Amino acid sequence: MTDMPVPAADLLPYIADRAELALATDLIEQLGMDAAREARVRANRSRDLGNHLHFCRWRQVERLARLLNDPSPMGTVH
Q1: What is the spatial distance between Cα 40 and Cα 76, in angstroms, rounded to a whole number?
Q2: Closest Cα to residue 18, out of 71, 66, 61, 76?
Q3: pLDDT tens track, the chain, 78 positions
Q4: 3-class DSSP assignment, residue 1
């Protein structure tokens, strides 16, 4: 098996609803570059409590916060 580059579409987070975007932007406003790390901590806490729904939500918020904090363009630039 060869190391193939990951398509950009596979890196984009799934946004289930506006609440996830609001969570990500609120964390970024409060914590700046540490927003993704905080979302990961919250996801792990939810997982440890057995709450798989909140775990999945916080993991998506983590990915979204990481994407929003990244200054480089993602996808096609015209």
Answers
A1: 28
A2: 61
A3: 456 555 555 566 778 889 999 999 999 999 999 999 999 999 999 999 999 999 999 999 999 999 999 888 777 777
A4: coil
What's the pTM? 0.78
Question: Rounded to the nearest 10 degrees, how much is the dihedral formed by the CA atoms of 6, 7, 9, 13?
Answer: 10
What letter does residue 32 receive in the DSSP assignment?
A: G
Helix residue ranges per DSSP H, 1-78: 8-11, 18-31, 35-48, 52-69
Q: How far apart are CA 8 and CA 62, in angstroms?
A: 17
